[in-house]
Amino acid sequence: MRIGILAIQGDVREHARHVSRAGGDPVLVRRVDDLAKTDGLIIPGGESTTIGMLMDEYGLLTAIRALAQDNRYPIYGTCAGLILLAKEVVGPSPARLGLVDITADRNAYGRQIASFEALMDIPVLGEEPFPAVFIRAPKITRLGDGVKPLATYQGTVVMAEEGPYLVSSFHPEMSEDIRVHQYFLEKVARTAKVQSAS
Ligand code: GLN
């Protein structure tokens, strides 16, 4: 399974390492042509205004929206990536994909200094708690009807999925635990299977 990693900003190498450890083939995506070699995409954290602007400039927003049109191109957005996937954004609103029916409140967990790590229960990953790192993280303040919450921290949903899309407020590539990446790879495998069966 070839997993694209948007290589504009953020923990590109760490995501690539986690994808490899989870049994996938990481493909760095910088240009529209790179997308053709992928079965799914990870959008790392960073600064969503900058990433969105560059994605727009490189034609990646249009190309990814086209791939996503039939709901068969899995995308996982972490932190800034979550903001770029959100239909609605509170605060300065970056150019973005807007594919997931959530509202993201940018920087709702405070400034850089308010970054933290928390051990979280994520039932789809099994019983062992997951070490989740939050860095100037967005909060999901609204979930559309089709969006399934996967993890909650202090009453706020911090990981969710809708169809082929997965979002998390936290950075799973910053711990050694690869279960979130494994979960995304399974999603990509399922989507590929549906595709080849139809
Ligand atoms: N606060 C950043 C933004 O609004 C996201 C932070 C992150 O990705 N670690 O884009």
From TrEMBL:
Pfam families: SNO. Its EC number is 4.3.3.6, 3.5.1.2. Keywords: Glutamine amidotransferase, Hydrolase, Lyase, Pyridoxal phosphate. It catalyses: aldehydo-D-ribose 5-phosphate + D-glyceraldehyde 3-phosphate + L-glutamine = pyridoxal 5'-phosphate + L-glutamate + phosphate + 3 H2O + H(+); L-glutamine + H2O = L-glutamate + NH4(+). One of its GO terms (biological process) is pyridoxine metabolic process. Coiled coil: none annotated. L-glutamine binds at residues 46-48, 106, 135-136. This is Pyridoxal 5'-phosphate synthase subunit PdxT. The gene is pdxT.
